[in-house]
Amino acid sequence: MLLKDKVAVVTGSAQGIGKATALRLAKEGAKVVISDLNEEGISRTLKEFEEWGYEAIGVKADVSRHEDAQRLVEETVRSFGAIHILVNNAGITRDSLLVRMSEADWDAVIAVNLKGVFNCTKAAVRYMAKQRYGRIINIASIVGEMGNVGQANYAASKAGVIGFTKVVAREFATRNITCNAVAPGFIVTAMTEKLPEKVKETLIAQIPMERLGTPEDVANGVLFLASDLAGYITGQVLNINGGMYM
Ligand SMILES: NC(=O)c1ccc[n+]([C@@H]2O[C@H](COP(=O)([O-])OP(=O)(O)OC[C@H]3O[C@@H](n4cnc5c(N)ncnc54)[C@H](O)[C@@H]3O)[C@@H](O)[C@H]2O)c1
After folding, report:
1. Whose CA is nearest to atom 41 of ligand 1?
2. How many A from CA of 190 to the centre of ligand 1?
3. pTM
4. Shortest-distance atom of ligand 1 to CA 186
5. What is the number of domains present in the chain?
6. Domain residues for 182?
7. Has residue 138 been placed in a domain?
């Protein structure tokens, strides 16, 4: 049990990488907060966690809203008495070529993927600093490192997350709070399901391991960074991409 008695919040955890991460942390003994915009998704996931015998609560929160992020952290502390681990996972795409990208699509992606990370981190570090312990893991993307046609908004948000991660790592290092990013490659979830088969084939041809990743591949990396095994690792980007970018 790597995370016995730890309390972990995972944003966007009703499905996909967030859900797999929450489950991975729970299996190691963490009490988890399933947080998402999708209320139905939260209930469904929470039911599964309860059936499996894991300690979990659900909190509906839109990470792009500052007051929702505050409430998420407050409800966590009220229910479980602390917040040790924050996984900033909630994210969206609104893809199109730059010439066709609307201001609304730009703003929406930045609001969730970048401002959301700011909102939740700011709310959580207050408690983490007081308790002199914290693990913050931000889910970035290979696209924030390499760029990708049609994803100017998304790439900018994820590159922003990497920069933000390094600042938080520096500002809170003496408080025993580590902050790292995980940059997944292309992972089989609802987000990549939307891609046409032809695009998937082209992607796989660029991956040395010749397959897309699974949510569990990402969850295992998050678990490591959330655990005490990674106590001297901060400000880093862990690439989980089958060798697609190195
Ligand atoms: N799937 C991939 O290939 C891939 C690759 C690299 C990075 N990522 C990143 O991993 C994270 C999870 O992606 P996924 O593939 O599991 O996506 P997903 O679409 O399956 O899940 C995202 C979850 O976030 C929730 N969400 C969306 N907006 C929200 C908001 N404003 N507040 C709270 N929750 C919100 C959704 O309801 C959903 O449950 C994202 O940050 C994504 O950018 C995914």
Report:
1. 91
2. 8
3. 0.99
4. 3
5. 1
6. 7-236
7. yes
